[in-house]
Amino acid sequence: MAKDPVCGMYVEEGEHALKTTRYGTTYYFCSETCLVEFQAPEKAIARLKRLVTLGASLTVPIAALTYLPIISDRATNNLVMLFLSLPVQFVVGFRFYRGSYDALRSRIGNMDLLIGLGTSAAWIYSISVTFVPGFFPGSATYFETSAIIITLIQTGNLLEYITKGKASEAVHRLLNLQPSMSHVIRDGVETSIPIENVRVGDVLIVRPGERVPVDGKVVDGSSVVDESMITGESLPNDKRIGDEVIGATINKTGLLKIQATKVGQDTVLSQIAKLVEEAQVGKAPLQRLADRVSAYFVPAVILIAISSFMFWYFVANIGLAFSLLAFVSVVIIACPCALGIATPAALLVGTGKGAENGILIKGGDQLELAHKANTVIFDKTGTLTKGRPAVTDIVPIGPLSETQILGYAGSVEKGSEHPLAQAVVDAAQKMNVALSDPSDFETLAGLGVRATVQGREVLLGNTDLMDKFSVPVDSYAGKLTTLQLQGKTATILAVDRDPV
């Protein structure tokens, strides 16, 4: 049997069962109402707002009539409360009767059954006191008890839906990162098609500034790709032929042709969304324990209520009226008002906020155990950074001063969109270094940049770039290694093919 993600009921997974599929997972539902609430939570929120408003507008005057001497005649006062409580009991509280019916049909005790039983017992007892005032030993009614419990629990349900809706926005924002259209080459012709129509094996064109439509492998071209939304790595990664690319990441510089390897629900982005959704629908260990307890709690309460009635009626021989009052009192007192308001809001907010900040929480188990952690271990590929590169060291190895070095570096980087380039330009501007406009600018993917500044050839990049242009840097390997061991990205500047 499967559990309804809305109400928690267990339902059969038959061919004709109510079900829907989201992110590759099939969910089953006990009723059309739960299915609609799952598919369109905004409609459920609007409906609950109307019910809570109705319940509150009637519960307040019922409570006032109970505790304040507004109507002096008790019989009239009780009749007014009876008519005010009718919509609360059977309109605002209808979901508890529906849930009780589903529970009885499935032979499972749930909180809806106990709430429905408790509020109904209080309401029916109050009607009996109203129309047969001399039958029971007391004259007090419990119209306000029933109304308050129903309204408060529905308020709790409303808060849960609102919280869940906000948490789900993180999933929707993730999926919205994926472009809606893609450029596909079919039969040698480039065409734009919806991303849903992309098939595994299709060759797609991704231009600079565009997001990669689906997961794939580079078959032509080279570029740098910003994968920070998946990996958290602030610096773009170089991509060449044979490298994997992830859907929704941003192509920064060169034109890429990629072959689709994963589409639709199989992409990395969809899998992340699926994990977040499952974590929000799933339950933490404490919640699962509460579910197991409730299965025994409901029958136990009913058994205790019946035992109380039998004791006072048959053993104590108090009489029918007092014995019925004892039965009703047990059921009302056991009505789980607090449990109905206490919702899994922490789980919903935690997983949603985690996804929003790039932290993937795989379920309630991990979230519940997180408070016990006293040590966090990061592996060698972990990225711990503010995501804002900055120039920390300028090491002259030639005749130029630091200001001159920064001037050449900042001038050549004016033509680049790379985060490291922006850091160099920012450093030059902070030191009021005059920058020139570069000409013949060229980006060499995975190596660095090349341009002409003030009539001189300027190279800025890694050792592979220097090797490509035969710039001698072997004697400076020690200095480069020292900087790299400090966690810094070391780059070399060469002017007219001389390292400076």
Describe this structure in words.
There is one protein chain. The protein is an alpha+beta fold. The chain has 3 domains: 40-173 and 283-348, no CATH class; 181-269, Calcium-transporting ATPase, cytoplasmic transduction domain A (Distorted Sandwich); 402-499, Calcium-transporting ATPase, cytoplasmic domain N. Helix content is 50%, strand content 16%. The chain has helices at 32-39, 41-67, 74-92, 94-106, 111-131, 143-176, 228-231, 268-281, 285-315, 320-334, 337-341, 345-356, 364-369, 402-413, 419-430, 463-468, 477-485, and strands at 2-3, 10-11, 18-22, 25-29, 181-186, 189-194, 203-206, 215-220, 223-226, 237-239, 244-245, 250-251, 256-262, 439-444, 448-453, 456-461, 492-495, 498-499. A 6-stranded antiparallel sheet has the order 6-5-7-13-8-11, with no helix packed on it. Strand 17 (492-495) and strand 18 (498-499) form a beta hairpin. Helix 2 runs antiparallel to helix 6 (143-176), helix 5 (111-131) runs antiparallel to helix 10 and helix 8 (268-281) packs antiparallel against helix 12. The protein is elongated. The protein starts with a strand and ends with a strand.
